[in-house]
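Narrative summary of target 7.
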Amino acid sequence: MSTATGRKQIHLAAHFPGVNSTTVWADPRSGSQIDFSSFEHLARTAERGLFDFFFLAEGLRLREHAGRIHDLDVVGRPESITVLNALAAVTDRLGLAATVNATFNEPYELARRLSSLDHLSAGRAAWNVVTSSDAFTGENFRRGGYLDRADRYTRAAEFLGTVRELWDSWTPDGEPRPFAHSGPQFRIEGEFPVPRSPQGQPVVIQAGDSAEGREFAASAADVIFTRHSTLEAGREFYADVKGRLARYGRAPGDLKIMPGVTYVLGDTDADAQERAAEIRRQQVSPQNAILALEQVWGRDLSGYDPDGPLPDIDPDPDSTLVQGRVRVADPVAVARRWRALSEEKGLSIRQTVIESGSRQSFVGSPATVAAALEEFVAADAADGFILVPHLTPGGLDAFVDRVVPLLQERGVFRTEYAGTTLRSHLGLPEPVWKGGTP
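Modeled conformation, tokenized:
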């Protein structure tokens, strides 16, 4: 979406930080990951900044390391939709996006919960559809199993289609009609108890960079949450996914591409670079460095000195030392790259993990970061960004106070909400009712 001046508008969302090494829990400014006040603070800040939506991840099982609860991670995470229902009462315009797994839920129950959130928030609900092939997580559920990786999107596609059938079982003028669905994954029929939502249907977000994930997003999602945070990778991903839309009868504006990004602000660019380096050292503590090493090697390396050299043994590609985290695809290749980097620059274990890990996406003064964000969107590398602060819950404050006004001055970000629903914030059309006649 562009303004009358032709400048492409930037969409912004806020991710509540928590798991993984992005969040610096050791910082004295860090608060609780479970107290409602933390969620409220970040959500109110995002709404003050006129963001499109507030985004919550999901944690279905406590992650384990060597058979024990991982003590460098978040222990205790509330259920997403419950939190967002509460946030609906303390926000007015901000979209509320919940990550909910399509592998371990059922269409009727989830359709009802999301539609209820959409009504309670007056049309601000979104569902981030995720899948799982993780047997470790599956043990928490009645089926006690999991789907093969090849079947995850098959179930997810039918799951989403079934949910939309339920949402469409009420006509736009408020008439309920019976529903019936019969497919390989689900066979249900009855009457859906919740009327059509204020924005037609909740917004659907999909996170996935694989070929299957890209196709799923092109066929069914309203927003895709991606990891591509460099200009070159972003432009390739953007062109590829947008190029898939036409075969599903969709226009380029029907799907918003929003990578998850981090940022560090400073009074000057040099100041920001120094702060970014210090934050990386905080994110990769000595304990986290060994954990990162063990995730690649699949071995107990607790006896190694994080300030010493990398192990000279090879990784165990079949290891289950770490449970509940995404497995390293090719640990032998990763270990080879790390060794080459360590030898080239004379780096210790901790220094190697810091050097090889992801960098903050945008670093600089507020003016530098604002210009970089505009360049990224103008170059069709993204439609906007899901910002992931490194502090909970105050990490978004400086961005809203110092960067948002500059984006507004540039004419690439709203100065007020034009509508009341999340679809209106994103510039998405209301879904066409496909319920037909009974």
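The first strand starts at residue 11 and ends at 15.
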